[in-house]
Write a structure and sequence with these properties.
2 domains; two-stranded parallel ribbon; 3 helices
């Protein structure tokens, strides 16, 4: 019997792309399981934006500061 594959999954719990990545990883691991390969996932936290206040922030203000876009550009991108 082989040792299980050990995976450290580093993610921010509120990051939607981390959820997408985890789904892809789980799908891949299901495929490998059919071939007899087992894996152990260790979840590791990482804050993508540790400066964010607990109450959050207005999305237009946040995007403007992060990417330098104007409120008009932000509205156009979301239209």
């Amino acid at each position: 019997m082989t040792k299980p594959l050990k995976i450290d999954f580093v993610s921010d719990v509120v990051c939607p792309w981390c959820v997408v990545g985890l789904g892809g990883l789980e799908t891949a691991l299901d495929t490998l399981k059919a071939e007899g390969i087992e894996a152990e996932i260790a979840f590791r936290p990482f804050e993508l934006n540790p400066q964010m206040a607990p109450e959050g922030e207005n999305i237009v203000d946040h995007i403007g500061r992060k990417y330098g876009s104007t409120p008009e550009q932000s509205a156009q991108n979301r239209a």
